[in-house]
Amino acid sequence: GAVVSQHPSWVICKSGTSVKIECRSLDFQATTMFWYRQFPKQSLMLMATSNEGSKATYEQGVEKDKFLINHASLTLSTLTVTSAHPEDSSFYICSAEGPRTDTQYFGPGTRLTVL
Amino acid sequence: QQQVKQSPQSLIVQKGGISIINCAYENTAFDYFPWYQQFPGKGPALLIAIRPDVSEKKEGRFTISFNKSAKQFSLHIMDSQPGDSATYFCAAGGQGFSFIFGKGTRLLVKP
Q1: B104 and A42: CB-CB below 8 Å?
Q2: Close Cβ partners of B77 (under 8 Å, ≥ 6 residues apart)
Q3: Count of other CB atoms within 10 angstroms of residue A13
């Protein structure tokens, strides 16, 4: 139980285009989902906290207009990287707060490469 | 006050040995301490977690030791296996808190 999926698992796009990443909780409802960014050999950096039906809360330094988050249902949150640039290339991981609050279950991650 | 300090940064252990990773936190309001295991190119997977009401929790070869007064907790991997080679992250969180992650420990278990 408590499985989180992400789609796509990897994406390559041209600079200036937008990319949407989906995060789904497959067997539980998640009121809260989180989006992280991870650079090679580094820890997870929380980008934003997403609550179903309300606006996401962004961490300091994260551009909300660049990283659009939508949490339209209890099982789906999306992250859209708008006007992507090479410096946005990274590993993006979502997590969902599990059936028991406090526990976060992570998706498999999405590798974004912007050319 | 929001940091979680994790050590060592990297660790090499022989097969069958004990791997020990330590974390220290600052905020006494944290009440949930999970450990995650991450393989290259994959998302972190919840390994084991503990709350402050117990000093130790064991699941198979994995044990968390928790010292509330010292604000420290550690992960012990008994009988370490090459398949345990991964990056391990500790975290601290709880009701009303986003997770604060340690910087990770890269574990290599040599056959």
Answers
A1: yes
A2: B18, B19, B20, B61, B62, B84, B107
A3: 16
| pLDDT one-digit tens code per residue, A22-61 | 999 999 998 899 999 999 889 999 999 998 888 899 999 9
Residues whose CB falls within 8 Å of the CB of residue B32, separated by 6 or more in sequence, listed in order: A102, A103, B49, B51, B92, B93, B94
Which two tokens mark B39? 């393989």
**Do the bridges between strand A76-81 and strand A90-97 make them parallel or antiparallel, or are there none, so unpaired?**
unpaired
Burial B92-109 (b: 16+ CB within 10 A, else e): bbbeeebbbbbbbbebeb
Task: Kindly report, residue by residue over B65-81, the tens digit of the pLDDT.
Answer: 999 999 999 999 999 99
Could you tell me if A79 and A90 are in contact, meaning their C-beta atoms sit under 8 angstroms apart? no
d(CA B77, CA B88): 11
- Mutation pick from B98, B103, B105, B106 vs chain A, by most beta carbons of A within 10 Å, is B98
State how far residue A43 is from chain B, nearest Cα, in angstroms. 5
